[in-house]
Amino acid sequence: MPAAVAATRRPAQTADTVFFPIRHHMPAFDRHVFVCCNQRPESHPRGCCEPEGAAIRDALKEELRRVGRCDVLARVNQAGCLDQCEYGPTVVIYPQGIWYGRVRLADVPRIVQETIVRGQVLEDLRIPDECLNTKGRVPWTPGSPAGEPPAAPSS
Q1: In order of start, what are the domains of the chain with their CATH numbers?
Q2: What is the pTM of this model?
């Protein structure tokens, strides 16, 4: 057995030795923020959160740096497909399970200040529970109740 492998093995436990797992005392994150950065061809029927997803992720990280020290420890990560493509770009915040859809760069400061720092849900961005995981079969636009057809574009 190679010496490096042997050195990582735990010695046999005896009657007068007890081994406890080593715990690293890193503070736990209060919020985990996942931003859909999945990439699909432009012709894909479900659409894609890119390139907006990466820009939103970067802006969230920068806004958290700008805000600086606060009572909340948050981590922003890119995610693969969050399966809410029809409501994208999509952001989900755990452990609260808050799903935001059709997020724009302009929404980032509000998401950081109101949701990440203060714990408040932005109802105008929240994807209603009845819309989640429906692959867009339940229409929704930000600020509208679930099932309400999207507003007609103004000319």
Answers
A1: 31-131 (3.40.30.10)
A2: 0.74
